[in-house]
């Protein structure tokens, strides 16, 4: 595994030696002698690993380490020191330095530290890509998704959960308390049962009130979150808004039956429309048809519909 490496040291002989060792191993190497030059290079180029001497004429390697961390750059920083026992080494490690190597730098130690740093960066980059992909999926899902730990504390939620439940960033770290309201607090109950049992839970087509007070028909799916030992650390809860589907089904049921006449076909819809039209007219209607076709039901429907005033 090879990478692009920056070497910061104010001693030319050390820059030359480290550069020669690393280039011989197939790496691309850029060398600088000052903090100012290093910051300029970091701003314009992307490096996989940075080697920085701790003591420099215009600053310290720790200054470079701080700047790299402040910019959110993922490249590991390896400190070079002539005195591995000095206090600044400890400070560098606390600030997030990947490692340090003492002077005089030996080829084997240099290449080994480089291999480890590149492997760490590759794994970290892959983890970051995986996290970014998950976040993109998390944001794009239309269902409300929220994760809760074993103490019912909200860990994370997506935009759909914010819209349905009224969550804000201030709710993260607090007990869940904005789930859609049902008469029997059903969602809070099944959430508590799922946390206790560690088993998946489902509840379909529950009529409730969303955070804004609007009537909703919501279905819930709850699945356990497991650690590497298979132990439950919480649950992820998905809430699907089925209000639109529920309303359509209600309309279909309405259109599928008109008084005591049953039928969903297009011809039957025309019959219903004709009955409604006739009901608004004060006149005599002749209903014809073969025996058993429902003439009596049509007459009953006509008589039961109110006549509009003025007709």
Q: Report how far the terminal alpha carbons are from each other.
A: 90 Å
Q: Supply the CATH architecture of the largest domain.
A: 3-Layer(aba) Sandwich
> What is the H/E order?
EHEHEEEHEHEHEEHHEEEHEEHH
Structure classification: alpha/beta
Q: Mind telling me the C-alpha Rg?
A: 35 Å
Mean pLDDT: 85
User: How many E-type strands?
Assistant: 14
How many DSSP helices?
10
Assembly annotation: single chain
Outline type: elongated
Per CATH, the class of the largest domain reads Alpha Beta
Q: CATH topology of the largest domain, anyone?
A: Rossmann fold
Q: Largest beta sheet, briefly? A: 5 strands, parallel
Which features characterize this protein?
Beta-Lactamase; alpha/beta; single chain; five-stranded antiparallel β-sheet; five-stranded parallel β-sheet; Rossmann fold; 3 domains; 10 helices; 311 residues
Write structural notes for this entry.
It is a single chain. This protein is α/β, with parallel strands linked by helices. Helix 2 runs parallel beside helix 3 (61-70) and helix 9 crosses helix 10. The model has no long low-confidence stretch (mean pLDDT 85). Helices cover 42% and strands 23% of the residues.
């Amino acid at each position: 595994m090879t990478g692009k490496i920056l070497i910061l040291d104010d001693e030319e002989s050390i820059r030359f030696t480290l550069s020669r060792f690393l280039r011989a191993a197939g790496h691309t190497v850029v060398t600088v002698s000052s903090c100012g030059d290093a910051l300029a290079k970091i701003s314009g180029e992307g490096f996989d690993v940075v080697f920085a001497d701790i003591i420099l004429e215009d600053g310290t390697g720790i200054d470079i380490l701080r700047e790299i961390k402040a910019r959110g750059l993922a490249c590991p920083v390896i400190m070079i020191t002539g005195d591995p026992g000095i206090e600044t080494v400890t400070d560098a490690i606390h600030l997030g330095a990947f490692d340090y190597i003492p002077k005089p730098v030996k080829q084997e130690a240099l290449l080994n530290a480089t291999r480890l740093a590149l492997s760490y960066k590759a794994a970290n980059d892959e983890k970051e890509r995986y996290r970014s992909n998950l976040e993109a999926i998390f944001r794009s899902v239309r269902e409300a998704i929220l994760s809760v730990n074993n103490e019912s504390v909200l860990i994370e939620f997506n935009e759909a959960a914010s819209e349905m439940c009224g969550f804000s960033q201030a709710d993260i770290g607090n007990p869940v308390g904005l789930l859609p309201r049902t008469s029997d607090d059903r969602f809070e109950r099944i959430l508590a049962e799922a946390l206790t049992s560690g088993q998946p839970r489902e509840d379909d087509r529950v009529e409730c009130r969303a955070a804004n007070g609007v009537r909703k028909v919501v279905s819930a799916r709850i699945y356990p979150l497991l650690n590497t030992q298979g132990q439950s650390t919480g649950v992820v809860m998905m809430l699907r808004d089925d209000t639109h589907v529920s309303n359509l089904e209600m309309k279909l049921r309405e259109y599928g039956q008109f008084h005591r006449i049953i039928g969903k076909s297009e011809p039957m819809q025309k019959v219903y429309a004709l009955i409604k039209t006739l009901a608004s007219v004060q006149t005599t209607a002749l209903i014809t048809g073969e025996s058993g076709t429902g003439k009596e039901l049509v007459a009953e429907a006509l008589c039961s519909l109110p006549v509009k005033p003025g007709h």
